[in-house]
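Aim 2 progress. For Anaerobic ribonucleoside-triphosphate reductase activating protein, the working sequence is reproduced below.
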Amino acid sequence: MNAATSTNPDAASARLGGWQPFSACDWPGRLCAVVFLAGCPWRCGYCHNPHLLARQAGSAHWPRFLAWITQRRGLLDGVVFSGGEPLQEPALPQLLQQVRAMGFATGLHTGGSHPHRLAAALPLLDWVGLDIKTLPPHYAALTGVPGSGQRVQHSLSLLQASGVAFECRSSIHPQWHTPHTLQMMSAWLAGRGVRHYHWQLLRPPPGGTAHWQAAPPGWPGSALLADTAARFDAFSLRSS
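Predicted structure tokens for this construct:
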């Protein structure tokens, strides 16, 4: 493989885990298609897409997606790249460029695991949803990867400096997030200047294989929700 090939991978080689033709909730205020890219460096115990953890689990279906999305001009606002972890895909900049050339806006869901790849992708993005899993010092225990908390902090700094619209969001569950942890997470983000933050209740994935139960009714509690909402311009508790 020559240097040019390794630096600029062919978009057709991208490993897709599938796509969702239409979504009104994956990019606030936009109607979009969602492309799921295979591969993720982290191993969170509550992952809802474990079938996308290995890049080899994806298929080279990008040309098929392009042929499909061509017919959606004027019907969709944009395309969101999700995963897995979409920044794990070396060809992501090429995918973004091709979608933008077709007139679609581009969005990204990321856990912040690859800050340098995020920096390269930001000029090609219109919006980013940054997943905040826990407090930075607790990341390694949750993801299984040392240094993952520092990577997320770096990614947040890059986003804030870029001027690209973004929100932070956390998938929460009492097994991984105590009320104190949630308070500290919101205080940390508000102190960093984040203005848009959202929570989503984690639910056991379909199939009944998860070793944990859904959060009890009423969790995380109205007082904590009100306290968190007061810290941000926009805050909500979303259902999965």
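Helices lie at 3-7, 62-70, 92-101, 115-121, 139-143, 148-162, 179-191, 222-229. This observation will guide construct design in the next reporting period.
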